[in-house]
Amino acid sequence: MAEGNWKIYVATDLEGASGVFRFAQTRDITSPLYVQAMEYLMGDIAALVRGLREAGASRVVVADGHGRGDNFIPHLMEPGATYITGGPRKPGEGLDRSFDGIVLLGYHAMKGTADGVLNHTQSSMVEMRYWYNDRESGEIAATSLIAGGLGVPVIMVTGDVATCREAREFLGRNVVTVATKRGIGREAAELYPLQETREAIFEGAGKAIEAIGRCRPFKLPAPIRCKREWIERTERPSETRIAVRESSVRDIKKILDF
Ligand SMILES: [Zn+2]
Questions:
Q1: Which residues fall within 8 angstroms of residue 125, CB to CB, at 6 or more apart?
Q2: Could you list the residue range(s) of the whole structural domain that residue 12 is in?
Q3: Contact 175, 156 (CB under 8 A)
Q4: CA 235 to CA 224: how far, in whole Å?
Q5: CA geometry: angle 150, 100, 62, nearest 5 deg
Q6: Domain for residue 129, yes or no?
Q7: In 89-162, which ranges are E strands?
């Protein structure tokens, strides 16, 4: 086993987990499909935690990020990490400057990505879109900016092929990416067997630890011009309009909510 004293934060989402490709798996926690998706996510997390520990991480903190943030199944928690779940809590709870790297696990491509499985930005229900300094940005960029504000680099991203591509476009070539499936449409995918994606995640975790020194925190010059757009109902039933909000944001923690 490698020597190391690395401290790694893991931000999770559900849409990019192995085996997840339908919104019905991600929206209603009382649905058996949702509970099964949570199990899939826990399997991916377990492979990552084993890989990070094997590669020398001494502390791993895994944060539950999808929806209301209560997607973890306690009896499936892999030993060697702690697990932050439930809400309300702020994005990046528990993340601070002492971490050597952050992994984005189970992420998805931004809204409008043709081959992005379950593509959306923050809310698929109102088709939210975000721009930072005039560049349309998804959740990979948002989480990376929040971590970057604390000086913590993204070292690894998992999700579908489109997610991996978006990660490299925003973060550069040094970030380790592991594809869990290939998107065909928003709810259509070529799935990879779970045993294989978990092996890939385990191996990717080792490479991610090696990449720590090469990955740089993701930052934008402040203040950041932030814009978001979403679909809003009007007074008339079935009629909608596009709402827009713009702001100049200095506090990086406010880039989602301005
Ligand atoms: Zn999600």
A1: none
A2: 6-109+138-218
A3: yes
A4: 33
A5: 90
A6: no
A7: 101-105, 129-132, 135-137, 154-160
The CATH number assigned to the domain holding 68 equals 3.40.50.10780
Residue 233 lies in a domain: no
pLDDT tens figures, 25-75: 999 999 999 999 999 999 999 999 999 999 999 999 999 999 989 999 999
- The tokens for 212 are 């720590």
Instruction: State the total domains in the chain.
Output: 1
Q: So what's the pLDDT on residue 175?
A: 98
70 Cα to the center of ligand 1, angstroms? 11
Residue 59 CA to ligand 1 centre (angstroms) = 25
Whether residue 139 contacts residue 147, with contact meaning beta carbons closer than 8 Å, is answered with no
Q: Which amino acid is at 150?
A: L
For the chain, what's the residue count? 258
23 CA → ligand 1 middle, Å:
10
Is the residue at 120 inside a domain? no
